[in-house]
Amino acid sequence: MPGGRWGASAASRLASFSSPVFKQVVFACAGIAAMLIVSKIDYHYLTHYAWALYGLSIVSLVAILVIGQSAYGSTRWFDLGPVQIQPSEFAKLATILALARYFSEHGGDASGRARRQHDEGRHCPASPAPIW
Fold first, then answer.
1. What average pLDDT does this structure show over 20-35?
2. Which of 13, 43, 50, 71 could form an SS bridge with 97, CB 3.0 to 4.6 Å?
3. Rounded distance, CA 67 to CA 58, Å?
4. DSSP alpha helix (H) spans, 15-48
5. How far apart are CA 46 and CA 119, in angstroms?
């Protein structure tokens, strides 16, 4: 029965990691599982490590220039075998955490305080670093 053999062959190709469909399903399930796990973490705990995470993200952004993978004229990813990591996505979260910690320690009034610090020549240490 040729139809059954072709159907089994197609199913085995879909179930292999070389299939883009199977790979997307696996990573979607892993992403949902990671989202559920991370949603249980109290973000106040992460603010204790905000500056360390921010520093690590800056180091990873600089490292991507040296050892990153290039594709279509840009260097954005670390190639870790079956997956590629884009450190700019983690840097966005680290910047948000660093700014949240900064404003929580120095008062939450961003508009008035930032204007006064700009006039006095003092700036938030986290904001100018990611701008190249």
1. 92
2. 50
3. 14
4. 20-39, 43-47
5. 32
Instruction: Output phi, psi for 103, to 5 deg.
Output: -70, -30
Angle at 97 between CA 116 and CA 122, to 5 degrees: 20
pTM of this prediction?
Answer: 0.60
pLDDT value for 30: 94
| 3-class DSSP state of 38 | helix
> Distance (Å, rounded) from C-alpha 94 to C-alpha 98?
6
Residue 93: CA count within 13 A, CB half-sphere: 11
| Six-digit token string for 60 | 């990873």
Kindly list the domain boundaries of the chain, sorted by start residue. Answer: 1-40, 42-132
Whether residue 15 is predicted with pLDDT greater than 90 in this model: the reply is: no
CA pair distance 13, 21, nearest whole angstrom: 10
